[in-house]
Structure formats: structure tokens, C-alpha cells
Amino acid sequence: MREIVLDTETTGLDPKDGHRVVEIGCVELNYHVPTGKELHIYINPERDMPLEAYEVHGISEAMLADKPVFADVADQFLDFIGDDAALVIHNAPFDAKFLNWELRAVGRPTIPSERLIDTLQIARKRFPGGSNSLDALCRRFGVDLSIREKHGAVVDCRLLAEVYLELIGGKQPGLMLATTAASGPGGGDRPSAQLGLVGKAAVRTPRPPRAHAASAAEDAAHAAFLDKLTAPIWRA
Length: 236
Known about the structure:
elongated
């Protein structure tokens, strides 16, 4: 099961106000496990970088001056996310709004809402009333934030991949997940999962053995019960 953890950085909050995507990050998951395949693109927004946005992600106008415009990377982006992989995004409506605006502008197919998995929505259902920012969720689940100085698309995707795993059930303590290829119907390979125990075995205190022999009273009661049976099959 292929999924793509996705994040964008932008020049502002709304494409209708002329704001643009300046960075796209994608991390591929297979059965919720990162495969190592990633996509990272900086994009020239063909406009200035507002100070408020720069203070969030640290991407300057000068950094983007020699980067490709969105039209030049649209196909690369679409090829990476494919046609059917679910897109795991924190606050998915925000990123989808910007990406679909950019895709429409260059005549490419947009991303349907059915493909979106919004981790912010999942977190709000699990932790109503609490802070559910990516930073807050990382702290809640013990995900190491030391790699994150500012918002960055790929770094945020890597963090979100760990948070997503926790949100959908978490890692199993004492278990190790290993993926193997198994032959599926039709001769193709399909991923399968094997769980193996790891770590130290639990220390158990042995119980003293219990007596199992029947008492004289129990033997007599059993014999009386057998005498009441009519032609049991073991006496045939």
C-alpha cells in the first residue's frame, strides 16, 4: 500500500491573494514504512518573499532566483505522487488548495479530495481541545525534533511520517516489523509483513506444581456415575 507524506512551503496563506508554492517535499511510504524514496523541489514563485513567510521557513527570494518555475516541475511532481497513492498531509486543505491552484494554472490534473489523509483532522479527533500542531504532536509522541530549525518541506514530511504512524496505532513495543516479498495471485510480487519478537525475554517466576491425582471421594463419585450409564461404547 503506497502512501505519500507531503508538505509545501508558500509565500503566504491564500493563492487567491497572489501567493505561490515555493517548496514541495514528499516522502514515500509502503505499508506505513518509509521506503527511502523522496522528492524535494524548490520553486521560483515569480514574486517577492514576504517577511512573515521568510520568518517561518527561512526561504529567501534570493535562494529561489535560479530555481525552476512550477510549470517546469509539475510533471515531475505528478509522476512522483502517481495516480492513486493516498497523500498524507498535516492540514491537507491548505496544501491541496495551493497545489491545485498551481496545477490548474499550468493545465495539469488536480488532486481529488478523496486522495487526502489529513493528519490534523485525525489528531483533533484523538486529542480534542489540545494543541495538534506538528511540533506539539512530535512532543506528545516523543518524536525527535532536533533536526528541525525552521519549517522545511522534507524535514516536516519525515517528522509527519513518524507522527502518522503513531496516530493510526503506533509502534508495537517489543515487536519488529519486517517486510518481505511474497508471490501473490497472478504471479506478481506483493509485500507482506512478518512480526518477530525482539529484546529480552520476560522474566517469569515459576509456580510450584499442583497435585493432579483424584481423591478417594472423587474416584468413588466417578465410579458411581459410570454405573449409571447404559451400554457405554467403551464396554462394547
